[in-house]
């Protein structure tokens, strides 16, 4: 039995990408409906992540037309069949995570949601959900593909595995950033680095994700958190998120400065949060002997970075890639940290765009004009 509220409209507005030369355009398409194991969310807001830029700019191929947007918060308006034991209800507010585990594959069975093979094969490569079909289509019936849940729309179908209920004290619009920026930050600190109390940390590139790494590393008890970026404006608020020092690597030699701040040792853990060779170099350069470098930045297509072979080997350094987090375990933890005030999700959101302004917002993100995170606010 499907449970729903009566007022779901037949059509909705969505920002559709048809041509990477043209960018996002708002269209009226059919409102999607949830199938087995899924919920329909009325989207309150969708965060604007750098990963979307790789698809919008054409650097990472994705089937088109598509609706992007992969970090949302909103209210459940319909339950598909087969979610009886999830505890999810119509009317409940939720955060939606970008990494939507199938819940059935070998990786999911062992709790490693971030390695879910069907997520990559079906959603990331084909833009569909786990029955091999998209839930989105134009009024004429042409399929429209989904990057994660296709969050840049008024409604989004999300597998029940990828939503976490948010308590009443959570402000839904900024809570949209929990499902990628904060989830990825949590995954990097908790899973990628397995950060321990008292360790020293550097975060290279403090955009939407990097800022969350700064605050979560600080909350996990890092003794020093050194924020590194090329923009003084991006660095300015970092001490408010728990950074103990900031370095503008365009003006200062980051390695020398980190060595000075750490008694000549370098940091135990360096996080890289942009995905270009220069930030990999910085993250490796500031690492202590035996240190762990945790890259979360995604390259614009196939990219390689230089790693000094003998230093890595002789200094027993590790490179520990980290993708998202274990959504089913970690998204509820992230929501809890936000609810408790440990993750400051409200101030990170520096700009609100309407759905019509989504294309303009991503251009500002590409031009590095966004502090923290911008969101598309569906009420505007
Ligand atoms: N691993 C994952 O699960 C995951 C999840 C989300 C995003 N990502 C990736 O993480 C990266 C960051 O995403 P975001 O949304 O935080 O990006 P963003 O655009 O918000 O931030 C990028 C930051 O990089 C800084 N920067 C630019 N050039 C630099 C340089 N040479 N050295 C240091 N800093 C520099 C900018 O000033 C800005 O603060 C992207 O590659 C994105 O695709 C990965
Ligand atoms: Zn993202
Ligand atoms: Zn799976």
TrEMBL record:
<dbReference type="Pfam" id="PF00107">
    <property type="entry name" value="ADH_zinc_N"/>
</dbReference>
<feature type="domain" description="Cytochrome c">
    <location>
        <begin position="32"/>
        <end position="246"/>
    </location>
</feature>
<dbReference type="InterPro" id="IPR036291">
    <property type="entry name" value="NAD(P)-bd_dom_sf"/>
</dbReference>
<dbReference type="GO" id="GO:0008270">
    <property type="term" value="F:zinc ion binding"/>
</dbReference>
<dbReference type="InterPro" id="IPR002328">
    <property type="entry name" value="ADH_Zn_CS"/>
</dbReference>
<keyword id="KW-0408">Iron</keyword>
<dbReference type="GO" id="GO:0009055">
    <property type="term" value="F:electron transfer activity"/>
</dbReference>
<dbReference type="InterPro" id="IPR013154">
    <property type="entry name" value="ADH-like_N"/>
</dbReference>
<dbReference type="Pfam" id="PF08240">
    <property type="entry name" value="ADH_N"/>
</dbReference>
<dbReference type="InterPro" id="IPR011032">
    <property type="entry name" value="GroES-like_sf"/>
</dbReference>
<dbReference type="GO" id="GO:0020037">
    <property type="term" value="F:heme binding"/>
</dbReference>
<keyword id="KW-0349">Heme</keyword>
<dbReference type="InterPro" id="IPR013149">
    <property type="entry name" value="ADH-like_C"/>
</dbReference>
<dbReference type="GO" id="GO:0016491">
    <property type="term" value="F:oxidoreductase activity"/>
</dbReference>
<keyword id="KW-0862">Zinc</keyword>
<protein>
    <recommendedName>
        <fullName>Cytochrome c domain-containing protein</fullName>
    </recommendedName>
</protein>
<dbReference type="InterPro" id="IPR009056">
    <property type="entry name" value="Cyt_c-like_dom"/>
</dbReference>
<keyword id="KW-0479">Metal-binding</keyword>
<keyword id="KW-0560">Oxidoreductase</keyword>
<comment type="similarity">
    <text>Belongs to the zinc-containing alcohol dehydrogenase family.</text>
</comment>
<dbReference type="InterPro" id="IPR020843">
    <property type="entry name" value="ER"/>
</dbReference>
């Amino acid at each position: 039995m499907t449970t729903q509220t009566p007022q779901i409209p037949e059509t909705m507005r969505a920002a559709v990408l048809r041509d990477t030369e043209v960018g996002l355009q708002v269209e009226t398409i059919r409102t999607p409906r949830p199938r087995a194991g899924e919920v329909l969310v009325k989207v309150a807001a969708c965060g604007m992540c750098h990963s979307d830029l790789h698809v919008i700019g054409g650097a990472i191929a994705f089937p088109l037309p598509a609706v992007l947007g992969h970090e949302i918060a909103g209210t459940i308006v319909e339950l598909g069949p087969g979610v009886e034991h999830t505890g999810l209800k119509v009317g409940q507010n939720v955060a939606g995570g970008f990494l939507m585990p199938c819940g059935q594959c070998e990786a999911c069975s062992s709790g490693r949601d971030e390695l879910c093979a069907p997520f990559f094969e079906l959603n990331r490569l084909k833009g569909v959900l786990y029955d091999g079909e998209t839930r989105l289509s134009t009024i004429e019936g042409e399929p429209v593909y989904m990057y994660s849940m296709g969050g840049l729309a008024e409604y989004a179908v999300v597998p029940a595995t990828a939503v976490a209920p948010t308590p009443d004290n959570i402000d839904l619009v900024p809570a949209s950033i929990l499902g990628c920026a904060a989830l990825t930050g949590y995954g990097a600190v908790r899973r990628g680095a397995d950060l321990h109390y008292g360790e020293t940390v550097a975060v290279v590139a403090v955009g939407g994700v990097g800022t969350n790494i700064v605050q979560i590393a600080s909350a996990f008890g890092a003794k020093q958190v050194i924020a590194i970026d090329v923009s003084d404006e991006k660095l300015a608020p970092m001490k408010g998120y728990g950074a103990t020092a900031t370095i503008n690597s365009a003006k200062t030699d980051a390695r020398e400065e980190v060595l000075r701040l750490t008694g000549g040792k370098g940091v135990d853990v360096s996080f890289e949060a942009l995905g270009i060779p220069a930030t990999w170099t910085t993250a490796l350069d500031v690492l202590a002997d035996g240190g762990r470098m945790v890259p979360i930045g995604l390259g614009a297509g196939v990219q390689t970075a230089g790693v000094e072979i003998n230093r890595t080997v002789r200094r027993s350094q590790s490179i520990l890639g980290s993708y998202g987090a274990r959504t089913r375990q970690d998204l509820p933890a992230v929501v809890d940290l936000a609810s408790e005030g440990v993750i400051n999700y409200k101030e990170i959101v520096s700009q609100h765009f309407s759905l019509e302004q989504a294309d303009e917002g991503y251009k500002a993100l590409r031009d590095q004009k966004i502090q923290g995170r911008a969101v598309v606010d569906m009420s505007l």
